[in-house]
Structure formats: C-alpha cells, structure tokens
Design brief:
- One of its GO terms (biological process) is cellular response to hydrogen peroxide.
- The longest helix has 17 residues, at 391-407.
- The protein has 13 helices and 4 strands.
- The strands form 2 sheets. A two-stranded antiparallel ribbon has the order 1-2. A two-stranded antiparallel ribbon has the order 3-4.
- The protein has helices at residues 62-76, 91-102, 133-147, 153-167, 195-200, 234-247, 252-262, 325-332, 369-372, 378-389, 391-407, 441-452, 458-470, and strands at 267-268, 313-314, 334-339, 345-350.
- It is 31% helix and 3% strand.
- Helix 7 crosses helix 11 (391-407) and helix 10 crosses helix 11.
- The structure holds protoporphyrin IX containing FE (HEM).
- The site of protoporphyrin IX containing FE (HEM) has 25 residues, from helix 2, helix 7 and strand 1.
C-alpha cells in the first residue's frame, strides 16, 4: 500500500486536510497535503476475526462481557463526592462521553471515532466540547484497572454508552467490540483556532468550513448549540446540523433520532457566568475545577454548581427515563428565547394559542437553539412528528443510528468481535457469504493468461485495474479495497482514475 493511502487514524473531527491523489480515490479525490501525523497503532494489521488479539490479553468472551456490563452498570448509581451524580445517576454523562468519543468520525476520509480511545489524551481531552468528560473517565478508571488489557478504553467507553442507554430503558442493537487503544493523542489535532489548525486545516470562512472537514466551525466538534456562530437562528442551525451530521454519514432520520434520543436523558450545566475553569492543557492535575458556588462549600464547582456548556436546565421532566417526551414537548409548546446564568441563549416553553393546559402545567424544561432547529426544517419537522407519535418507531431508528454512530469507524461487519455483535448493517457494506465450493482457480488462471497474452497492452492494463481496485483501501476505517469489487459499479467505475478500465 502506498504511503499516501495509509493514513493511520486521526481523530480530530474536522481538521486535517485530506492527503489524496488520483491513486487514492476512496479518500474523496481531494487534492492537498499535510504534515506526517503518524499512524499510531497499525490498524492494518488487524485481522477479520479475534485472532489478532490472541496473546494481547483482550477478552471478548461472554463471561467477561457480562461481568463488564454488571460492573459498568454499578458505577452509574454509585455517586462519588468528587463529582456528585445528577439525579443520582451518571448514565446521561456516560452517554455524552460515548457520543463525543465516537461522533467525531467523519466520512470523508474515515478519521475519528472512538477506536483508539484518544479522548483520554490531549488534544481531544481538552477540546472545549469535552468539558468535564475527564470526570466520566475517572469514574470508569477502576473498571479499566480491574480488566486491564482484557478491554480497551475505546471498547469500555462505547460499551458504557450502550449500558447507560439500556439502564434507562433505551433500545440498544448490539455491541461491536474490537477497538484498539492508541498510545497517545498524536493522531488527533487541536480544533483551533490555532496555528496548527491553520496550517493543517485552514477554514476560509468560519461557520462554512468545507467538506472534507468534519465541522462547519473552527473549535467545535459538532455544531454550535446556540446557533451558527452563536446566532440564535433555528433555521440556520438546522442547515448546520444537516451539513455536519451529513459529514458523519448520518441521514435526516438518523440525525433527528440521535439528537432527540440522546436528549431524552440528562441535563445541561451552566450554573454561573464564570465558566468551568482551566482545561486539562492548562491544569492537567485538576482540570475544569469549576468556578460557580460558594468557595467554602463542598459542592463548589460541582453538583448544582457545575459549569460545562454554560446552558442550564433539562430537556425532559424525566431525564433518567427513555421516552419520546423530547419530541412531544417540542411540538406541544411555543418556544421563547431566554438566557442562562452564563448569558447564553436557551429556550423555554409557553402555551400555544388555544391550548387547554394551564400555565402551571407547563413542564420546567429548556431547549437549545439546535433543538428548536428541528422545528424549522420541513424534513426534520416531519420526523419530529413521527417520533412524537410513535415511540416504537423512535426505538428502532435510535437503536440503529446509535449502533452506526458507535461502530462506523470499525469498518466492515467482519471486523466486529464479541458476543453481542448486531446483524450486518448497510453501513458495514456486508458481502454475501463465500460459497462453500470455491471456483476452479486453476481454470480461471489459465483463462486469464490467454486474455493477457492476446494483446501486449493487457498485462499493464490489468495491473492498473488491480491497483485501482485494491488501492482504495484506507486504514482509518478499513473501508475500500477490492473486496466487493465495487469498481464494477458507479460511482467507482466512473472515477477519473478508472477511465477505460471498464473495457
Ligand atoms: C446537534 C447536536 C447536539 C448538540 C448541539 C448537543 C449539545 C449538548 C449540550 C450543549 C449539552 C450540555 C452539556 C452540559 O452542559 O453538561 C448536551 C448534553 C447531552 N447530550 Fe447533546 N448535543 C447534540 C447531540 C447529541 C447526541 C447525538 C447525543 C447522543 C445520542 C447527545 C447526548 C447528550 C446527553 C446524554 C447529554 C446530557 C449529559 C449530562 O446529563 O451530563 N447529544 N448536548
């Protein structure tokens, strides 16, 4: 494989320019160059089954899996003084951890995702969107120490997200295990604005950073919850969401199910105007100590004094219960702008004209501009209505979208190991089973030889064909390659570098 094609994994959601050439069409054909970012673990070495792990200590047995599930679930309700659990339960925090670890996957070049577990290291650890997720990692640390190499951080974080959803009654499709931990955060980038980001991933106009970058906005993993560049414009936010979730490979239904399904749980945190304090880069020993509350109080900067995003409130009245109240309430009320204690725009519900409810029946809930956005786009609105009226439809859509979100960087179905792997999904490009009786390769070989000898230009042509077919492989998310022989079909057949090969 050429050096250009062998990318390694870069988790910075949005930032690296894509090294590409005509010989690497699976990268999207973008021209550009970037510094050598290293490859970390050589993922290309990993085989299609768990034989790679034999001797590595990884353990994907049913017994270990069930013990892990039980240990993880016990953490949720074991509130610790260093970070008291909201509502007595860490499950929502853990879903946010798994979402932020996985959701930085970008389809353009397959980089990002939780494989590698780089959220433990800078720069990801210090990404502003990951504020206070260091606490979630600290809560999981005893489990990692207990299981050692039997479970990678990437698998632990993702499985914890699954168990968190399950523990609150949410639907889970399965678990694709087999993530390998990187030894550092070297393959992730600072989100910027910074000189490194400017050099590697320049963005001409902030707010409209372009594909193949994973986000529209410098400094963010996803979209600005306050609206594009902080402007509380729900319609603009809807466009931003479609753009950014599209770069993750999510369609409208997956996007709306994920946002509303995720926000069925938990709350946002913004108890005061002074922020969370220094991040792990500036305060590695005690990052984000908090600045809200009475400095003499044991809950200074934590519990009800937590500052994470700067918004304050919760999306639903039962933040530890899986339901479709998020969608129902979005439709049930009109939404009015207000400000959090940190002066950030958020929205509260008021009665619609002609409503039969009384004022004091209005739930004490809040939405962000990026939630209200789902009402300001025709396709999103139709999905909000569907999910509000049919919980089982939401169950199915959310479970599939969450599995895709958390397995997309793992590549093809055969790469998933463990005892709870879901059936092959479309995004895993499933191939038919190999036939029990393989064709007569000697016969095929001699047929090919006679074609090759029929024209002196054919040998070179067929070498080109094989190269074009195989060199699409990328080690970031294991997609591409000649397995599947997609070079026979559009769009691969039509790529510029493949002109004439269909002959
Ligand atoms: C448009 C996309 C999204 C935006 C802008 C967004 C924004 C936010 C913000 C600002 C918070 C509050 C953080 C805090 O102050 O503690 C939050 C929390 C949360 N988000 Fe999202 N989010 C998005 C999508 C998702 C998705 C797709 C999921 C999962 C499927 C998710 C799951 C959660 C959960 C569970 C919490 C609560 C965490 C807790 O209680 O500690 N979010 N989100």
């Amino acid at each position: 494989m050429s050096r250009t094609c062998k990318l390694g994994v870069l988790a910075a959601l949005a930032l690296a320019a894509v090294p590409a050439s005509a010989s690497c069409p699976f990268l999207g054909g973008q021209k550009g160059s970037q510094p050598d970012l290293g490859t970390g673990v050589d993922r290309a070495l990993r085989s299609y089954d768990d034989s790679y792990y034999s001797g590595s200590g990884a353990d994907f047995s049913r017994e270990t899996y069930e013990a892990l599930q039980a240990d993880i679930t016990a953490v949720f309700t074991d509130s610790q003084d260093f970070w008291p659990a909201d509502f007595g339960n860490y499950a929502p925090l853990m879903i946010r951890l798994a979402w932020h670890c996985n959701g930085n996957y970008r389809q353009s070049d397959g980089r990002g995702g939780c494989d590698g577990g780089r959220i433990r290291f800078n720069p990801e650890r210090s990404w502003a969107d990951n504020t206070n997720l260091d606490k979630a990692l600290t809560l999981l640390q005893p489990i990692k120490l207990k299981y050692g190499d039997a479970v990678s951080w990437g698998d632990l974080i993702t499985l914890t997200g699954n168990e968190a959803i399950r523990s609150m009654g949410g639907p889970v499709l399965g678990f694709c295990a087999g993530r390998l931990d990187d030894a550092s955060g070297f393959d992730s980038l600072e989100l910027g604005p910074s000189p490194e980001q400017e050099a590697v991933a320049p963005c001409a106009v902030n707010g409209t950073c372009e594909f193949p970058l994973g986000t529209s906005t410098v400094g963010l993993i996803y979209v600005n919850p306050e609206g594009p560049l902080g402007v509380p414009d729900p319609a603009g936010s809807a466009a931003d969401i479609r753009d950014v979730f599209g770069r993750m490979g999510m369609n409208d239904s997956e996007t709306v199910a994920l946002i509303g399904g995720g926000h069925a749980f938990g709350k946002f945190h913004g108890a005061c105007a002074t922020g969370p304090g220094p991040d792990p880069t500036d305060a590695p020993e005690a990052p984000w100590p908090g600045t809200c509350g009475d400095p003499d109080s044991p809950t200074f900067g934590r519990a009800e004094n937590t500052f994470t995003s700067g918004f304050e409130g919760q999306w639903t009245v039962e933040p530890l219960v899986w339901d479709n109240a998020y969608f129902k309430d979005l439709l049930e009320y009109d939404w009015v702008m207000t400000e959090s204690p940190a002066d950030q725009v958020q929205w509260f519900p008021v009665l619609k004209e002609g409503a039969t409810e009384t004022e004091d029946e209005i739930p004490d809930i809040i939405m962000l501009t990026s939630d209200i956005a789902l009402l300001y786009d025709e396709e999103y609105l139709a999905l909000v209505e569907l999910f509000a009226s049919d919980l089982s439809y939401l169950d199915t859509a959310f479970a599939a979208a969450w599995y895709k979100l958390t397995s997309r960087d793992m590549g093809q179905f055969q790469r998933c190991v463990g005892t709870d792997v879901a059936p092959p999904q479309d995004f895993q490009l499933p191939l038919p089973e190999a036939p029990a009786d393989l064709p007569d390769t000697d016969g095929a070989k001699s047929a090919i030889m006679s074609i090759l000898s029929s024209d002196p230009s054919y040998p070179a042509l067929f070498v080109t064909l094989a190269w074009q077919c195989a060199s699409t492989y990328r080690s970031t998310d294991f997609l591409g390659g000649c397995n599947g022989a997609r070079i026979r079909f559009s769009p691969e057949r039509d790529w510029a570098g493949n002109q004439g090969l269909d002959q």
